[in-house]
Every structure is written in C-alpha cells, then in structure tokens.
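FIELD: query
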Amino acid sequence: MKVSEILQVKGNILYTITPDQPIVDAANTMAEKDIGSLVVMEFGDLVGMLTFREVLKAVHANDGSVGAGTVRKHMDDAPITVTPDTEVNEVRRIMLEKHARYLPVMNAKTLLGVISFYDVARAVLEAQSFENRMLKAYIRDWPAEQEENTN
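FIELD: result
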C-alpha cells in the first residue's frame, strides 16, 4: 500500500497557517477543528509544521500560557516529508524512528496533504481486515475433493 491510497481514503481537507500568525491563533484553530497539526505555508511553499507537540513546548516555555510569539518561532522548520509513492511500511518506519506523528505528502514542490499516525494505523488495519475476510471466504468456498474411484 502506498501513501497515495491513504490520501484517497482520508479526503482532501487540509489546514494551513502562515508563519507570521500568532501561535495562539494556531492553537485555537487546532482546538476548534480537533486536529493535531497545521501545515505552515508561505508564498505557496511548505515552510514548516506546527503540531500539538510544539504548542505544548510553547506552553511549557511560557509557564502555562501559549505566549505571544508567532508560529515561526515554534514551528518545525524542517519537517520530514513523504511522496505519494512512499510505501506504508516505510512511512511506519519513519514515524517510529523519528517520533513523527504527522508527515506532509509532497509531489515535487506541491503539497498534497498530511498523513497522521492515526491515518496509517487505520489504513493498515483496514487492509488486514480485508485480507482476513478474503482468506476466510476462500477457506469457506474451498472445493470439496472428489473421492477417487478404487474399483
């Protein structure tokens, strides 16, 4: 399975923010939309990712308040990206090794979407469930062997 297949199932809703917006706006958007990340775009290019991890770091640094800084100050300015052709097993490896819960999907310089750890887990579970159903159907429909005539 490839990343492109996960994106097809997930849909095309993508939430973005600019780097010069206040981090409080980003945190509010993430809370209102019930999302864990925002793609940071500037002049049509991906320049970073802001996840709940960076927001929590900002809260910690500001003694319990998100603070008055901008997204640029807190964002990950070198996010790991994948392509639509990246295999799911490679995505799982990257997510586990790099502790990345969200990966932007890029086709050259074009942002196609973001996949989350949840999206990958759901896709793998659905693929395994489908395979299990097919195997069970195959076993149920196993043709009865004909008895050999021993006359």
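FIELD: remark
DSSP finds six helices and five strands in the chain.
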